[in-house]
Amino acid sequence: MGKIIVTGASGAFGHSAAQLLLEKCAADDLVFLTRTPDKLKHFSEAGAHVRAADFDDPASLPAAMEGAERMLLISTARVGTRVGQHRNAVEAAVAAGVNHIVYTSLIAADAPDNPAIVKLDHRATEEIIEASGAAWTHLRDSQYSEAIAGAMVIPALMAGHKPDNCADGKVAFVSRDDCVASAVGVLTQDGHANTAYTLTGPELISIPEALAMASEIAGKPIEVEHVDDEAMFAYFDSLGVPRHASDIVPDGPIPWSSDDMVTFGQSIREGFFDLATVHVEKLTGKPPRSLREVMLQHCESWPK
């Protein structure tokens, strides 16, 4: 097996993947790409190759991709503008000889009627990879348990209430750590070419049920207010969240848009997340962690 590339190795997912790969592979076989190599000195000191790469600068990519056979392409953060970045990365990787691309996608990315606008970026990227000539594996992640245990629960506990447009739509929330381990499994095993895996946690839970679980763990009330999509937009407007991806200020305080979040909730409400699979265990050899386990891991950071 040739060298393995991890893109975005300074980010949370990429950094975790890099650490796990160092436990399983020879350091010299690992290439970690980042716009900020100084942040990854600990990996180069461990013997891995840390290379500067900027997907907005295609000229930086041929040298970054050189000598590798497999690549974990972690979706970049810029919803609405990242397809061009992903295309640059895929084209450079294939030109450099990468023959298998593993991509972090989204549950139901290939469902044409899925209303979540974030799926447009993911499916467009999947199609670019499928047409590239390289083997592909799409890892279609459900919603991260960590996003619930942190970004959703903390403000809900502080306010005592949370508007929500997901109704009773079910989600098999998945730990990001399990998604990282699944990606590393695909990168270090054979037999996963040209396959899409939906990665989920073990149980289907609605957002109101998830918030009730957090309320019980914290011993503080959270009242869920069932609202329609327009009221959800108004709530995000009140927080100063930009409506559209095109309105996001680069490197600003809020890196996401409300149309992304509201249509994500609509997708949950309409049943596009209502799926639990065994793929995490198949790829990692371990059962996926439950939402409660992740909440108990994070509850020390919750408001007292």
TrEMBL record:
<dbReference type="InterPro" id="IPR016040">
    <property type="entry name" value="NAD(P)-bd_dom"/>
</dbReference>
<protein>
    <submittedName>
        <fullName>NAD(P)H-binding protein</fullName>
    </submittedName>
</protein>
<dbReference type="InterPro" id="IPR036291">
    <property type="entry name" value="NAD(P)-bd_dom_sf"/>
</dbReference>
<dbReference type="Pfam" id="PF13460">
    <property type="entry name" value="NAD_binding_10"/>
</dbReference>
<dbReference type="InterPro" id="IPR052718">
    <property type="entry name" value="NmrA-type_oxidoreductase"/>
</dbReference>
<feature type="domain" description="NAD(P)-binding">
    <location>
        <begin position="8"/>
        <end position="147"/>
    </location>
</feature>
